[in-house]
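$ ./design --mode recover --in tokens.txt
reading tokens...
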């Protein structure tokens, strides 16, 4: 008799023998896993410590920079005040120098006029005026018209 398999079952293969790990392989795997975890924790701890140090250093630098900024703003305000005072003093000095420079001309004229009046008897000056380069003299003369001629000659 011939048997025909119509179900299409495949042949059962022989089972592979399972490898049984011994206790030493499990222990090594456990030690390796723990050491990887410890190294990872160590790296994270070291990185956190370095980042905290950098953060503290940057915070100190920012604090110093803010203090320096406040100090420099104060100095800038003081400098503006001193600059205004300096400009005011320079303007005053310029005015004083121009007055001194312009003072010598009228003083010489008055000295010359005083000498001429003193040398001329019977002459009194009442008013002296100046418009640009023109001088006007008003006064009295007693005696002869020669008093006025002597005064003009002395000038």
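writing sequence...
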């Amino acid at each position: 008799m011939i048997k025909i398999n119509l179900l299409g079952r495949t042949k059962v293969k022989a089972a592979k023998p399972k490898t049984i790990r011994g206790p030493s392989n499990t222990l090594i795997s456990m030690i390796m896993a723990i050491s990887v975890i410890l190294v990872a924790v160590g790296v994270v701890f070291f990185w956190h410590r370095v980042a905290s140090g950098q953060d503290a250093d940057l915070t100190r630098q920012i604090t110093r920079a803010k203090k320096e900024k406040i100090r420099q703003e104060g100095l800038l305000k003081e400098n503006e005040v001193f600059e205004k005072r300096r400009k005011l003093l320079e303007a005053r000095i310029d005015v004083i120098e121009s007055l001194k420079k312009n003072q010598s001309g009228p003083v010489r004229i008055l000295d010359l006029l005083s000498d001429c009046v003193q040398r001329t008897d019977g002459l009194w000056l009442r008013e002296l005026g100046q418009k640009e380069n023109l001088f006007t003299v008003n006064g009295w003369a007693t005696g002869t018209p020669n008093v006025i001629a002597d005064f003009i000659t002395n000038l």
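exit 0
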